[in-house]
Protein 1
Amino acid sequence: MPASSLDPRTALVLIDLQNGILAMPTLTPAAEILKQGTRLTRAFRARELPVVFVRVGWSADGGDLPAGRSDAGRLESAPPAAFSEFPSELGVQDGDIVITKRHWGAFTGTELDLQLRRRGVTQIVLAGIATSIGVESTARSAYELGYHLTIVEDATTDTNAEAHANSFKSIFPRLCEVDTTDRVIELLAG
C-alpha cells in the first residue's frame, strides 16, 4: 500500500549502509541503494527531521558477538573496524543519530527507541540492507513499539531474491506502508 501521509515528527532510519555491507553482492546494486539513502537523508535534513544511521559492529575482541547456535554458523571473530564505517556519500553529521547494533534489528540492545521518543518521533521511514534481516527485524520491532512505519522499497535490497520478495509480499503489508523514495520526498515537501 502506498504511503498515505507522514507524521509531523517522522524520522529516517537507514539500516547498515556501511562499507562492509555495501561491498556485498545485492539484488539492487548497493550504489543505487546508497544514492536513494543519500537523497532521503538530504530531504529529511531539509525539513529538520531526525536522521538515524544504524550500523552493525562488534568490539575488536569479539566478546559481544552473537552467541546463539544456528545451521548457518556464527561469526568467530569481529570484522575489521572499516567494515562498520559509513561511506562519505552519506555525509553523516554531528546532529545525526548513530546507532551501533550487535544483532539483526536496530532496537534490540540499543538506545534507538529512547532517542526517537525523546525527539517526539511517532513515525519511521525505513530503508537499507538487507531487507529480510536488518530491515525486517527493525520493522517488526517498530510495529510492536507502536511506531507508524513506511518502508522505502527502492532504497532497500537484499542478497537473497526469495527472502527479499517474501518480506515485501508477506511481512511488510502486515506492518507498514511501502512506497518509493520519490513519493516519500513528495510527502515531506507537503
Protein 2
Amino acid sequence: MHSILIVEDDRRIAQNISRGLRDEGYTTEVAYEGYNGRALALTGQYNLVILDINLPGLNGFEICRTLRNEYPNLPIIMLTALGEIEDKVEGLDRGADDYMVKPFDLRELIARVSTCFRRADLLSNPTREEVLQVADLTMNVSSKIVKRSNTLIELTAKEFALLEYLMRQRGRVVSKMDLAEKVWSFNFDPGTNVVEVYINYLRKKIDKEFEPKLIQTRPGLGYTIKED
C-alpha cells in the first residue's frame, strides 16, 4: 500500500486531499508547516509527497530541493495558489514531477498521483536492459546513464524524461503540447515557457560541446532530435 505525505498549511485543503486519497486506498499523513513537513519526508517512509509552495517556516521549493537530493526517485507533486510561469519553472527545476495550480479538481490530483506511481514502478522494476541511440548520443534507460561521444552527461530526472521522450520519437517533430502532456503530465498552457527552458537545458548539456547538433527546432511545429 502506498503512503503519501501531504504538506499543506490550509487545513481544509489538506484534509480534503487526505480524505480523497484514503478513499482510493492510499495511507496519508499531513504536515501543516514547512520544517515539520521536511522532517517527516526525510524519514523515507513515504512513497510520494504532495507539497504546497507557500508554507510557514520553510517554503516548498526548499523542501523539494532537499528531497530530490536525498531521494532522486521520490515522486513529488507541487501545489500552489500562484499561476505564474516562473513558479512553474522553478518548481519543476527543483525536481518536482508534476505541478498543480489551486483551485484544482481532486479527481485530477488523484489521477496525477496514480501516474506518478506508475512511472516510479517502471523506474524501480525495469523489465529489460534498453539502450536508445541517436548518432553518438546513447541513453541506457535502465541504468539512467547518458553519454555523448563516450562522455558522461549528468541530467536531472526531468531532463532525462524529456530526452528519453525525444529519443523515442527520433526523427519525428514533437509539439510543445505533446511534450507538456507526456513529460510533465499537465495540460499545455500556451503562455508557459517550461518546455523551451528545458530544451535549452538539454542543448547546453548534449549539443553545446559536440557536433553535430542533434536537438532541432521546427518553428511553429515543435522539436525533433536527429542527425542531419
